[in-house]
């Protein structure tokens, strides 16, 4: 698959202008945190988007990715410490990979799928932070990129994605103890380039792309029943987004759009727009703050930017 086709979803996201961040100050009260603007954190050492990223024990790990102007895959692997606002360079990925996804489970970081130099898309690597070493694990049953991987319970769920020229609805489930894959109930519809997060012991699939349509849909997976149900649609469609849950809320960021789901009201609301509009980014909630990592700007130039803002965690 060519880099041009691989970037097709991103290239369709055009004509969106940057919106200035709201002004205000951080504070301890819910009202102050709600209005808190985005600020800049320590940037990554290299511009990159479509990173495989995950949070492990309060640290954010960012693996691989790409340089959008050329489609060049990256082996870069770094760890961000939010408390110190600093990056540490770690042992590189075993091979350059773009559009994989990451998940943390059992004290290890997993990088799953993605587009490598051989066009494989099934590779799975586990990183041990104590040894700073990678090891290969059982490959995905099918090649995937622009998918999502989330850890829930003692399993990793790999949802949807793109592969072999089409979108997919498969849900593959990884058991790290047996180093084996099984399948769960498929997505209600094929989807890729969506966000996914664990919220109240269920998996929320947010937005994405199906064909030429950018989606407002939300679907929720209950692992106890192995069933999907429709969730609350977003006011605005999103793809190539980052999403994470914090307390009673889910935070989803894409380009100039920042939407927050509140479980108390059962509704989405708009949050303050970020300083640099990006797609193909990663989003994490850590210790009362939200962080956006990397991504590609509306001018289709990759970014090394890290932004952060205070959030209310109820």
Describe this structure in words.
The chain is mainly beta. The protein has one domain: Neuraminidase (6 Propeller), CATH 2.120.10.80. It is 4% helix and 43% strand. It contains 3 helices and 34 strands. The protein has helices at residues 3-6, 8-11, 30-35; strands spanning 39-40, 52-56, 59-63, 66-67, 72-73, 77-81, 86-89, 97-98, 101-105, 108-112, 115-116, 124-128, 133-137, 148-152, 155-159, 162-163, 166-167, 171-175, 180-183, 195-199, 202-206, 209-210, 213-214, 218-222, 227-230, 242-246, 249-254, 257-262, 267-270, 278-279, 282-286, 289-293, 296-297, 306-310. The strands form 11 sheets. A 4-stranded antiparallel beta sheet has the order 1-34-32-31, with no helix packed on it. It has a 4-stranded antiparallel beta sheet with strand order 2-3-6-7, with no helix packed on it. A 4-stranded antiparallel beta sheet has the order 9-10-12-13, with no helix packed on it. A hairpin with a 2-residue loop joins strand 2 (52-56) and strand 3. The longest helix is centred in the N-terminal third of the chain and has 6 residues, at 30-35. The protein is globular.
What distinguishing features does this structure have?
mainly beta; Neuraminidase; four-stranded antiparallel β-sheet; 34 strands; 43% strand; 3 helices; 314 residues; globular
Which helices and strands appear, and what pairs or packs with what?
Elements lengths: L2 H4 L1 H4 L18 H6 L3 E2 L11 E5 L2 E5 L2 E2 L4 E2 L3 E5 L4 E4 L7 E2 L2 E5 L2 E5 L2 E2 L7 E5 L4 E5 L10 E5 L2 E5 L2 E2 L2 E2 L3 E5 L4 E4 L11 E5 L2 E5 L2 E2 L2 E2 L3 E5 L4 E4 L11 E5 L2 E6 L2 E6 L4 E4 L7 E2 L2 E5 L2 E5 L2 E2 L8 E5 L4
């Amino acid at each position: 698959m060519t880099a041009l086709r691989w970037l097709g979803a991103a290239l369709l996201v055009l004509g969106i202008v940057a919106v200035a961040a709201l002004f205000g100050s951080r504070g301890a009260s819910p009202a102050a945190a709600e209005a808190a603007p985005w600020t800049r954190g320590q940037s990554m050492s290299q511009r990159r988007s479509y990173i495989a990223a995950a949070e492990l024990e309060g640290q954010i790990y960012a693996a691989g990715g790409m340089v959008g102007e050329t489609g060049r895959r990256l082996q870069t692997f770094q760890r961000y410490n939010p408390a110190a606002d600093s990056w540490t360079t770690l042992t590189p990925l075993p091979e350059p990979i773009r559009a994989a996804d990451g998940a943390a489970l059992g004290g290890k970081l997993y990088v799953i799928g993605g587009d490598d130099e051989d066009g494989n898309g099934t590779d799975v690597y586990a990183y041990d932070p104590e040894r700073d070493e990678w090891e290969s694990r059982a490959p995905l049953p099918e090649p995937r990129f622009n998918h999502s991987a989330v850890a829930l319970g003692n399993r990793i769920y790999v949802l949807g994605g793109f592969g072999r020229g089409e979108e997919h609805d498969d849900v593959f489930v990884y058991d790290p103890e047996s180093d084996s894959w099984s399948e769960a109930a498929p997505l209600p519809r094929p989807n890729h380039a969506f966000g996914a997060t664990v919220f109240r012991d269920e998996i929320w699939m947010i937005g994405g792309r199906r064909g030429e349509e950018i989606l407002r849909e939300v679907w929720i997976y209950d692992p106890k029943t192995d069933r999907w149900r429709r969730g609350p649609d977003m006011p605005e469609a999103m793809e190539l987004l980052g999403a994470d849950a914090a307390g009673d809320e889910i935070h989803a960021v894409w380009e100039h759009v920042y939407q927050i789901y509140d479980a108390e009201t059962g509704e989405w609301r708009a949050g303050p727009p970020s300083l640099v509009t990006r797609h193909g980014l990663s989003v994490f909630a850590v210790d009362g703050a939200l962080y956006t990592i990397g991504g590609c700007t509306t001018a289709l130039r990759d970014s090394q930017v890290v932004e952060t803002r205070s959030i209310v965690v109820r």
